[in-house]
Specification:
Blueprint (H helix, E strand, L loop, with lengths): L1 H6 L9 H14 L15 E2 L1 H5 L1 H10 L6 E4 L7 E2 L5 E4 H6 L6 E4 L2 E4 H8 L3 H10 L4 H6 L12
Parallel strand pairs: 1-3
Antiparallel strand pairs: 2-4, 5-6
């Protein structure tokens, strides 16, 4: 009975952003009616009992690690299928997006990076880089190294 009571603990943090994050993790790992369940719980991803049963345990872990708005919980960096204190880290959304299994990596001059990482490193808009590679069917070398000429502007006067 104590476990059931713990689930309904009063903490006054229901409006805190971490509560929504925690709730989302619990739902996609345990609720077959959740639209993301097939990618998480239905794919063997779990949330440890400590976190599943207590938002406060999850909250304390996040705060102790320095959570702030903009950081996400990542279980994949350490290669696990369990959301738990020993398996998760805090990570920026950008870094988390670059860790997706669906990313397309491009190797050039011995460096293997996502399109987003190449675009940032080279100062190219990622949409432009994708367009060059997929629509224009440019070679990798040309897509990464091409710099358009600056357009001449008419001077007023």
């Amino acid at each position: 009975m104590a476990k059931i009571q713990k689930t309904f603990e009063k903490h006054g943090l229901i409006e805190h952003p971490l509560y929504g994050i925690w709730s989302g993790i619990v739902q996609r790992c345990t609720n077959p009616k959740n639209p993301l369940y097939k990618y998480y719980g239905g794919n063997g991803v779990e949330i440890c009992e400590e976190w599943r049963m207590s938002f406060i345990a999850f909250y304390k872990w996040c705060i102790e690690l320095g959570w702030k708005p903009g950081l996400e919980i990542d279980k994949d960096t350490k290669g696990g299928k369990v959301y738990s204190p020993s398996n998760c880290i805090l990570i920026t959304k950008k870094k988390n997006c670059n860790n997706r299994k669906t990313n397309h990596y491009i190797e050039h001059n011995g460096q293997n990076k996502t399109i987003q990482e190449w675009s940032e490193d080279l100062g190219i808009n990622s949409g432009d880089l994708r367009y060059r590679l997929r629509i224009n069917d440019w070679s990798l070398e040309k897509a990464l190294l091409f710099t358009p000429r600056k357009q001449k502007t008419k001077k007023n006067g």
